[in-house]
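Bumping with the actual sequence this time:
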Amino acid sequence: MAEKPWGGRFSEKTDRIAEIFTSSIDVDRRLYAHDIEGSIAHCKTLAKGGIITGEESDALIQGLGKIKRDIEREEFEFDEGLEDIHMNIEARLVNDLGKVAQKLHTARSRNDQVALDVRMYLRDETTVIIKNLIRLREVILDLASAHIDIVLPGYTHLQRAQPILLSHHWMAYYEMFSRDTERFGDALGRINVMPLGSAAIAGTTYPIDRHFTAKLLHFPKVAENSIDAVSDRDFIIEFLSAASITMVHFSRLSEELVLWSSSEFGFIEIPDAFATGSSIMPQKKNPDIPELVRGKSGVVFGNLMAILTIMKSLPLAYNRDMQEDKALLFEGSDVLKACLEVYHRMLPKLSISRETMGRAVSSGFLNATDLADYLVAKGMVFRDAHKCVGEAVRYAVSKGKELQDLTIEELKAVSSLIDKDVYPLLEVDSMINRRTSYGGTAKRCVLSAIENGKARIKEEMKPYCKTGEKAGKKP
């Protein structure tokens, strides 16, 4: 059994089982760089307030820098008996520098220290995710441009509904991932709040300048309430919520890719580099990447539910339950980044079967609404037109025909308003290009949407082009 950290009040050492149970070093060691960066800023703040000397601050900063280099060279030995990354770093600093290292923890608690580390980590992760979402949207714009003349059935209830441009379909996902980008951008503003200096719960008696610390760490805001600062995990919940919605969009896209790549649809082929075979059936080509992405949505949803459950009944302020937040956050972020990366690589390599999609548009009465619109243009109210076309469809089904295959006499039997000028309107190109309402599937509308999409991305990238980091970090 190890010596108990902060053990002056206790008469027994920590039981080995308790030591293992409470240790989080295997999870939170990835916070080492943020912990050290926060500690360096804290040293400078302590020196500014006259709490430690400039020489002591310099020594601590040099020592922290050496520890960071040792960790990055994998020359640092982590000790699970020291519970977490903060204590491991401090213990090593004490070993290297002696008593002066024990001054580092003055005017702070592990409560505000871990809150700082997680916020710094998460703003970096969120910035990476925003950039990757923009990259994915650029891929989708490229697909939309490349497929501007490909037509396929649009579906409702998984039944063929109306013909649409494949580019219009891609642009629907562009809009979904655009909203995701906005959500993460909004969340970043609430992540990017500096909690250090709140100490355990009530603030500190030492003369620290929290706004000075925030400036050093590139935080635009300082937490207003010390109790809230150490107990708030809303920013993690919000991040995982945004991640979950993004995974919903990935799952929907994945489901379509699985369906479209099946023999029953035959619309696309998954590239060999992103598919696998069967251990028993030599002919199989399985869409494992879309299936796995679809499945991984459950991991992110589960982590969101877990953090909500952890936080739902905690009294103020910090409780040890909150230690569980990091594993949930790290996994959620890792899964989302992996999905973004694999789709960024896979989507441009999809093989599209223009012919199969085109054949699918030619049957299934996808022009029924156009026939109803034709009757409305001739003066019939829409409800009556709907009924007439329904009768025409029923008749066509009985004859094994499509609407465009019915003779003019057969169509006139449904309504005397129908004339030969109806046939051009029942052709696919007409059905597509007459839908010119804003946001519609007409080619000129989709081309405009693509150009607008490019302009939006160009605008969104400006902060990154200027600073390298939207969070405010120097390049």
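The tokens above came from a reply further down the thread. The chain has 19 helices and six strands.
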